[in-house]
Structures are given as C-alpha cells and as structure tokens.
Amino acid sequence: MTTVTMWWKSFYGNEELSLPLPTGWDTRVVRMSAPPALSDEDIERRIQAPIGCAALRTLVAGKRSVCIAGDDITKPTEAKRLIPAVLRELH
Fold it and tell me: What are the 10-residue block averages of pLDDT along the chain, 91 residues in total?
C-alpha cells in the first residue's frame, strides 16, 4: 500500500487525512500553488468579460429574477468581494 496524506477540514482544525492506495497505482502528489492576488478591479473585469461564455448581463437579459449562490465561511472564497461585482453586473 502507498499512503497519501493531505490536509482537510479547513477552518475546522486543519487535520491530516491519510489515504491508503494500492501499491500498483501510479500515484503522484501535486500541490496547488497559491494563485495570484486579484484586485477588486481585476474581479470586476473578469465578471464583465468571462472566458468561454457570454457575459452575465447577456445571459440574464430579459429574465425577471436570478439566484445568486455563494459558499459559506468554511471556504476560502471572498464572497464579500465577488457578490458586489456580480450585483453591479446584474443591475
């Protein structure tokens, strides 16, 4: 058996989780690198001009309502920075 260890339960203690994997598996541990920081203006620009799909304002054109879902404090997303930009785009 090969054991891979990772962090889990972010914001709830950051515990290690060890996963036993079969010896014959070709396993590699790939660590994420920290993404570059985005300014509020960068966020605004990216919401206004998404890659690979139509702009949000185009997708909601003619609609009477929308639903905005955001994650909670157990995730590292800064919804307090994203949601205002989304609301401006919807308005």
Answer: 83 83 88 87 95 94 92 79 93 88
Instruction: Give the span between the Cα atoms of 18 and 20, in whole angstroms.
Output: 7
The Cα 74–Cα 10 span in angstroms is 7
Q: Which long-range contacts (CB under 8 A, 24 or more apart) does 79-88 make?
A: 81/40, 81/43, 82/43, 82/47, 85/40, 85/43, 85/44, 85/47, 86/47, 86/56, 88/44
With beta carbons less than 8 A apart as the criterion, state whether 79 and 70 touch: yes
Q: Tokens representing 17?
A: 């989780």
Report if pTM > 0.70. Answer: no
